[in-house]
């Protein structure tokens, strides 16, 4: 039987040994960003693959009828492992200071940062498979696809909610105990691991509806008056990002895009924001 500690220790060793968490010189937009760490230490949540909440995804008002459940991705699924990697202070602070355009550091977090999330998913599957368990990373699986505008057949944020990592905010990001600024990944496995207790009941328990993300949004895509669950216009957000997608200077000349202004310089950037003078546990 593999343990949570064994999983996290193996991943940490691999990430450090492989240099996954640092910008390679050939990718650096600016020379001084070579070697920049992208993420701080991650947090993990473990969900029951048969949790009834997964079935709510198929409701049109939640996600889409064509969303795949854990057992659809992996027959015999027992556990969903969700992980959140928070961006470093360097990445977050740079984006907060950069005005309406995304900082180079944030663009690295979005592109190379997502490449690392994918590497973690592949490595986690390998670790589990070495121990004799089946494992699938939905976002890397050939079956992964969009089933409607802005809706894929697996949601990292919704999985993280079920796995006890956090609740949704006005900007539609997920607020965790390490904040909202970062990226999520997940793996489904036949290994039965101890389930993480959800320290919340509602979908938006951690959002204080302060409206700071709305004021930060250069696309004017967030409207607090519509409520937390309907307050973000994905079309406006996507259009702004598409307008700013470009090949940024650097040896690799990767196409880069991003924004993230709703995740920085906000009360939920680094943790669960205070409510009524008390910080939530």
TrEMBL record:
Keywords: Iron, Iron-sulfur, Metal-binding. Pfam families: Fer4 (PF00037). The keyword Iron-sulfur applies. Residues 197-227 form the 4Fe-4S ferredoxin-type domain. It comes from the Bacteria. The keyword Iron-sulfur applies. This is 4Fe-4S binding protein. It comes from Faecalicatena fissicatena.
